[in-house]
Specification:
MCP_transmembrane, about 300 residues, Mitochondrial carrier fold, MCP_dom_sf, mainly alpha, Mitochondrial dicarboxylate carrier-like, repeat
């Protein structure tokens, strides 16, 4: 890590967030896959045996997957997950960082409401851009739950995109786009703006304990993970069900919400909350830790106004 002068700041490059998210995805993909299986259980009961074993848990789901398909099954759909991060996360982090640095070129803190607005806009664009890869990701993760005759058997993310375009049409690549975009807005507000806010509060009000290092990054990102999970879980459940649905299964987002409520009540919108938090918290932590390490070691050095 290069030395930093008292009146110098190190700014992130626009693509560091995408790289950090991709690195985090490599570590947390098995947890994401298990989360998807939790959320889609209700729509695929005929393809599973877990109902005969009582209410599933995250551990039992993992054991069942490994027993039926081997340890590599936990990384099913990894290529789609990486493609999603390199589209969705690179876009939202990139827009957020560029806009933030345009508002404050010297890296000084901008008002919280501005960060929320920037994060929301960044998330909306990123969610739309990342929808095709996100849909393929959900399908590849859920494929092993289906009967052999019903499996899509995508070889990788690109193969999945080509097959969807060829057999279902370009419009199908954006199945669940409205929910993915809404979720991305909430996720970006919960992650980008809240991480900056928690980091600012730690550095500003507890300077005797925290400085710009891994301890601060871990603390701020852990708090951020809790906020982001709570904001996004209902939208995540709806997004997953719509992306994994059969053609014409849901007429609209409202229809999906109604059907889910009929099936599971209000708690159905938080199905898989614990595995979602267990997956999202580490992913959030790793994303920001990786991104901060990239910033500190390869970021842009700028002088602030003299003190």
């Amino acid at each position: 890590m290069s030395s930093v002068q008292p009146n110098e700041v190190i700014l992130s490059r626009w693509y560091f967030g995408g790289l950090g998210s991709a690195g985090a995805a490599c570590c947390t993909h098995p947890l994401d896959l298990i989360k998807v299986h939790f959320q889609t259980t209700a729509t695929n009961l005929s393809a599973t045996s877990i109902t005969a074993q009582g209410r599933p848990t995250m551990f039992s789901t993992a054991v069942r997957l490994v027993k039926s398909d081997g340890i590599l099954a936990l990384y099913n759909g990894l290529t789609a997950s990486l493609l999603r991060q390199l589209t969705y996360s690179t876009t939202r982090f990139g827009i957020y960082e560029v806009a933030k640095q345009q508002i404050s070129p010297d890296g000084s803190t901008i008002p919280f409401y501005q960060r929320i607005i920037l994060a929301g806009i960044s998330g909306a664009v990123g969610g739309l851009v990342g929808t095709p890869a996100d849909m393929i990701n959900v399908r590849m993760q859920n494929d092993m739950k289906l009967l052999a005759k019903d499996r899509r058997n995508y070889k990788n993310a690109i193969d999945g995109l080509i097959k969807v375009y060829r057999f279902e049409g370009a419009k199908s690549l954006f199945n669940g786009a409205s929910m993915a975009t809404a979720r991305a807005i909430m996720m970006s507000i919960g992650q980008l703006s809240m991480y900056d806010q928690f980091k600012y509060l730690l550095l500003e009000y507890l300077p005797m304990i925290f400085e710009d290092n891994v301890t601060t990054h871990l603390t701020a990102s852990t708090l951020t993970g809790a906020v982001a999970t709570s904001l996004t879980q209902p939208l995540d459940v709806l997004k997953t069900r719509m992306m994994n649905s059969a053609k014409n299964q849901y007429r609209s987002v409202g229809h999906c919400i109604t059907e889910l409520y009929k099936e599971s009540g209000i708690f159905g919108f938080f199905k898989g909350y614990v595995p979602a938090f267990i997956r999202l918290a580490p992913h959030t932590i790793l994303t920001f830790v990786f991104m901060e390490q990239l910033r500190l070691n390869f970021g842009i050095h700028k002088l602030t106004e003299g003190k």
